[in-house]
Design brief:
This protein is mainly β and about 190 residues long. Helix content is about 15%, strand content about 55%. Strands 1, 2, 3, 4, 5, 6, 7, 8, 9 and 10 form a 10-stranded antiparallel beta sheet that branches.
């Protein structure tokens, strides 16, 4: 076989493989795309109530909502008007109540997002000074009793009021960190 024949055969082989690759690409683009995974809830619960107990069987928190939707796959859980009550270690005394317009729980149950207006309230019944924190769009790590927001915050106590943008709260430590633009007033109790 001559050099010209080998070159011709090599050229034909390259053209054949390019034609085959082009044909496969055209066939794949003509196929219908795979249908998108449905985002329709796989479970809906009306008048939802969940009680979390600690290892000793004592109530840690209770979450209630008029409606809950579990989304498919790793979509998590959507909650309508969630109310989360955290209890002191005795399981009897409610320490904090968190309310929101909407909520979402991550698929691994570690993160709770409270959307829309959020009100976090601690009553005097807890044995600690009462406080009401009003804000929006709060991320909560339930296991750590930690809440965080980048939105404007208003905290009202019996002796004063604080306003800020952004906050971090450690709800079991009586610790509230205001992140920026902090303004407030405080009036000491009368003796």
């Amino acid at each position: 076989m001559t050099a010209r024949g080998i070159l011709s055969l090599t050229g034909l082989a390259v053209l054949a493989s390019l034609s085959y690759g082009l044909l496969r690409w055209v066939e794949s683009s003509l196929r219908e795309p795979a249908p998108a995974e449905s985002q329709a809830p796989v479970l809906t619960i009306e008048r939802f109530r969940a009680v979390r107990l600690n290892i000793a069987g004592v109530r840690e928190y209770v979450m209630e909502a008029p409606r809950l939707w579990q989304l498919p796959g790793q979509g998590g859980i959507r909650i309508e008007q969630p109310v989360l009550d955290w209890y002191q270690p005795n399981g009897q005394t409610r320490e904090w109540r968190l309310r929101a317009e909407q909520g979402w729980i991550a698929a691994d149950y570690q993160i709770l997002r409270l959307d829309g207006e959020v009100i976090m309230h601690r009553t005097a019944d807890s044995g600690k000074p009462p406080v009401t924190v009003t804000t929006r769009d709060v991320w909560v790590r339930r296991a750590e009793r930690y809440a965080e927001t980048a939105a404007p915050v208003r905290a009202v106590t019996p002796g004063g009021e604080l306003n800020a943008v952004g906050a971090r709260a450690w709800l079991d430590q009586e610790r509230l960190e205001l992140l920026s633009e902090v303004r407030g007033s405080y009036e000491p109790p009368q003796r």
